[in-house]
Amino acid sequence: MNENSGMPRGDFVVSVILVVFSVWVIHMSLTMRRFGELGLAASPGLSPLVFAALLLICGLILLRRSLAQRGYRMGLSSRKSAAFLRAMETRHFVVVLASIVIYYLFLGVVHFVIISAVYVFFIIWYFKGVAWWKNLLISVLSGTIIWFSFDQVFLIPLP
Predict the structure, then answer these.
(1) Treating both helix axes as pointing N-terminal to C-terminal, what angle do 88-106 and 112-126 enclose, rounded to 10 degrees?
(2) 64 with 133, same domain?
(3) What's the CA gap between 71 and 7, in Å, rounded?
(4) 130 lies in which domain range?
(5) Structure pTM?
(6) CA pair distance 62, 97, nearest whole angstrom
(7) Number of domains within the chain
(8) pLDDT (tens digit per residue) in 113-154
């Protein structure tokens, strides 16, 4: 395997984000309610715990590799920072992240189908995916099918 990824700074930033996110998910998974005497084995947090542990391992491997390549040396300048802040990708990231935060804040306050349909509609509209009526159809159907599947078929209540 090639030890030099060619992106030690990017690997460093991503690895720190992965490690912090994984630790947060592990913490949240361990604090979830447990059912019966099986403890963690009967907890809905078991799957996220396993996936977060695997992601943590990958993040730590990436962190070790980026540290070995001195990825922590960012070499930031005002010109690079300004170009980064003006980039289309940065704008897309901020809009999507803000929409996820808004979705999270309204989840449980507004019915799942409505907030999910609005979220999916906005994301498709923002990235100019399809015509508005197709977007509306996709958004409403996806929210309804997901809600019906979990709430009515699998008997897992959604917020």
Answers:
(1) 170
(2) no
(3) 8
(4) 76-159
(5) 0.60
(6) 24
(7) 2
(8) 999 999 999 999 999 888 999 999 999 999 999 999 988 888
